[in-house]
Every structure is written in structure tokens, then in C-alpha cells.
Amino acid sequence: MQTHTKYSSGGTDLLNEAAALTWLSAAEKTGGIHISTVIKATSSELVEEKIASAPATPKAAEAIGRGLAHMHAAGASWFGQPPTNFHGAGYIINGSVTEIVADKTQAKKTWGAYFAAVRIEPFVKELTDEGLFSAKERAMFEKLCEKLRAGSFDAPQPRLVQNGIDKGEIACARLHGDLWAGNVLYDANPQNPTRGALIDPMAHGGHAETDLAMLQLFGFSYLNRVLGAYNEVSPLTDGWQIRMSLHQLAPLLHHCILFGSSYVSQTIFSAARYL
What we know:
By secondary structure, the protein is α+β, with helices and mostly antiparallel strands. The protein is about 45% helix and about 15% strand. The chain has helices spanning about 15-25, 60-75, 110-130, 135-150, 160-165, 210-215, 225-235, 240-245, 250-260, 265-270; strands at about 5, 35, 40, 45-50, 90-95, 95-100, 175, 185, 195-200, 205. The strands form four sheets. The chain has a three-stranded antiparallel sheet, covered by helices on one side. A three-stranded mixed sheet has the order 2-9-8. The radius of gyration is 18 Å and the shape is globular. The mean pLDDT is about 95.
């Protein structure tokens, strides 16, 4: 097995990435998409499997869709749940924290309340403090968060996830959390039944539509085949296409923080659709 090594000057970032990879990989035994295997993890070094990329094909895209559906169905115990052995307040990129909810007793009971409190409001506050959002724009997001907390956009999870919720086994989906095209690889290994592999997660518990919205946000080869196969294995709830831009607000807000004003117009436009 070829390996890939990441280095850090210290801290828990690499250990948290290893924890996220390991947590997601637990779903492979029930059909989940392949996750880059952790070989060694310390606070200064992470050694993981190196995935050899293959050309994108429709059949491989369909296998990826099925694998994502089964990964989500592995579930989490609460919205915002971090992987086992995770340390700290969240995932840190260039000093910006994407928060997790470390304690189940602090978790919100509905997706809308969680999404408002953990995935929207902290980023909006940061953007307002930095001057990228005006008071008018902050007020717009406050109105949106009121609607989220009221349950205006709550919807059942895809069927495989919802089955686990209905049985009392899980509370929500197990998410990769940063599912853009660069982190979803077409795998050249012919022995990989899901024909794809995931790297660089920001894994947590949430709504499965959030991962699919992220994949849609920046585009992916044969995305329609991915979504179609996902929907066949784990049917999506009516209206899921309409909710995609709502789920995309969290990564868009984060991109405003990381990359500045170039993402602000798109973020405001997307949020305005739900007011």
C-alpha cells in the first residue's frame, strides 16, 4: 500500500483528522464508501493510504452514490457530534473554527435549530465583526435563523438514515463534512466496490443533504449519476433540490471568511431565497 504523509508543527489537527477518517471508515463494513486508511497518527505526523485516482465513469459515479448513502446511514448520536477521540472546539482552517458539539446534553434537538446555532450564526458574527457583512446583512441572516429554529426547513433524512432514526439507533446522518470534488476521488483500485474514496474530512453528525449540497456546490464529474444512485438506494425527501442552496450556506459563509468578499454576493443571494 502506498502511503501519504502530512506534517504539523504540533497541536491536535492531525489527530482529529485521523479520528474523522477512522469514524467514517467504520461504515465500510455496511457498504459505506471507502475512506483513506490511517496508518499512523501523532500530533505532528499523519500517515494514511494514498489513493490512486482513476478516470471518472458513470458506473463508478453510481457506486460512489451508493457508498455515500450507506456512509450517511451509519449515523451519529446527535447533531454536531464529533468523531470518537476528537479534541477541541472544532475543525480549524487558517484560524477559522468550524464548530462541533462535544456534549450530547448541549445538542439541539432539530436540524434547523442546530444549523442556525452552530453552522450559521458563528460565521455571520465573525463576518460582521470583520466588516464583510453590514448590519443589514446580519439582520437578514438573523431572520433566516429564526425560520430555521422554527422548523420551517426541517425535513426527514434520506430513507436509510431515517430508518435508523425511526428505530432509535441514531439521531442523524454521519457526514464527511467537507464533501467537495477534491475530497471525493475516483479510485483506481479495482478491488474497491464503491469505486471512490474520501479524504480530508470534517466529519460530524448532521443532515445527509448537507454533504450532497456541498458536492453540488462546486461540481463533480457525473454528479447526476451520483445523486441518482444515492436516491435509488436511500430515497431523498421531497423538496430536497429546493433545500440544496440552504445547506450550501454553511460552506459559503466559511468561504467568505477564508477567501474574502469574492463569495459574499453568492452567499447573500442564496440566503435571500429562503426569506
